[in-house]
Amino acid sequence: MTLAFHPLTVADREAVQTVTLHAGRRNCNYTFANLVGWQFWFHTEVCVFADAVVLRFNLEGKRAYMVCTAGNLSDTLIEGLLSDSGGEMTLLGLEDSQVASLSPFSSHLSFLVESRRNQYDYIYRRADLAALRGGLLKAKRNHVNRFLTEHPDFEYRQLTPELFDKCRQLTAIWQERKEESVTIDAERRVMETVFAHWEALGMIGGSIFVDGRMVAFTYGAAVSTDTFDVCVEKADRGVEGAFAIVNQQFAEHLPDQYIYLNREEDMGIPGLRKAKLSYHPEILLSYNMVKLSPVGANRHLSLYLTRMTEEDAPLTVEWMVREYGFDCAEVEDWVQNLHFNWPMSVKATDGKGNMIGLLNMSDYRIEEETPRILVDAPQLLADLNARRYIAVFSFIVAEPWRGTRLNYDMLMSIMPELRARYDFVFIPVMHRLKTHRYWQRWGATEFYRDPESVYYKLELSR
Question: What pLDDT was estimated at residue 184?
């Protein structure tokens, strides 16, 4: 099969939604408005079949794909993707069930599967968000009631083009407390694209007015026949309860055909994750990134990368004692006291569930690892601590997997998040270990050394 792609445009809506609206998928990445809005960022291209929509993206300079189909990926489609990608491909946004459906291909394809927790979709019952009944949503109900008490004459208005300028003004207010970034600028561009094609994209929006002034707005579009995707929600942070009321009112005013609201991902932002979980989602829709290649093209055989949790702490102790020969009590003390960043730590297992690699990340400060720097180089320490950083605590690969791409794949699986959150990575390496050249090849530079270790800095700026 030869896949014929073309750049995605608004004109593709009918062909794409003929498949996506009826495929039974609630994945917000299939929302046509999202695809069009972010086309400039991902250089999205599309190929439409009778039963599948194939999207092709530019991901860090390489091709990546997303496929929307009601059933499983067919042999013919897999072969077409492999041919288009040049023999090794990356599939994005696969739900757990879709990953499981790839098992029949394991005889001739190797897999690298990475869970993408930061991209999980939060899906709620629309009626729950509209009514806010029950003890679980009492706090949200209280926020709404407080807003109603303080602003009994508020107005809910359907979002229409004549209100777009007010949306722009409110967005500027919302952004006042946010640091200017490439992402913020991109979001503005997406919003302008949506506004420019509002009717053609089938958008629905709502807004809240207090004393004639817009204090919140939201909008989205259908992702399936029974699920609506809330793409944007903005509010004046100075108005108590503005976010809560626009959330509740929009859910109340949406057409009854929408049973579910997809409020998209939390992007790994702690405050956003807490807020989304506090509404108690009906579904937390999992996503995975899967890399496939013909068996023999590399040494990965059904390799799985997942994020670690505190429950994995004993693994770190066991592996550091076994592989590095450290004292068990010493390692246990490290794990207990050195502020592990479990969500950024990675565990690798093979197709049989055997542990084959660990990448442990930590939020400990440089002076905790090397207190001598406080006396030897206080100005250097001050300069480093003025920047954002995360530390590599341990990087361990099982003997049969050394010399493969496993260490690279573990690090690359978190690299987008590292670049988004930190200025550099702090890497302490004991003199007797053999990983100095590895980090130097990555571009890490030494900034300090003591009798025990060399301390490296890996800059994360693009």
Answer: 78
Residue 374 is given by DSSP the state: H
Write the DSSP string, 97-128: HHHHTTGGGTTTEEEEEEE-GGG-EEEEEHHH
Domain boundaries, the chain: 6-118+286-290, 121-264, 307-459
* Cβ proximity of 53 and 67 under 8 Å: yes
Residue 270's CB is within 10 A of a number of other CB atoms, namely 9
Residues 303 and 400: their CA atoms lie apart, in Å, by: 13
Residue 161 has pLDDT above 60, yes or no: yes
Q: Which CATH architecture has domain 6-118+286-290?
A: 3-Layer(aba) Sandwich (3.40)
Residue with structure tokens 């599939």? 91
The answer for residues whose C-beta is within 8 angstroms of residue 293's C-beta and 6 or more apart is 82, 87, 88, 89, 109, 110, 300
Write out the CATH class of domain 121-264: alpha beta
pLDDT tens for each residue of 177-197 = 665 555 778 888 999 999 999
Whose CA is closest to 29, among 98, 89, 78?
98
Is-above-0.85 flag for pTM? no
Cα Dmax for the chain? 71
Q: How confident is the model at residue 299 (pLDDT cuts 50, 70, 90)?
A: very low
Fold agreement (6-118+286-290, 307-459): yes
Question: Are the beta carbons of 392 and 426 closer than 8 angstroms?
Answer: yes
Task: Say whether pLDDT at 404 is over 80.
Answer: no
Number of helical (H) and strand (E) elements in the chain, helices listed first: 18, 21
65 three-class SS: strand
Which top CATH class is 307-459? alpha beta
Q: Contact at 8 Å (CB) between 341 and 374?
A: no
Mean per-residue pLDDT, 428-447: 88
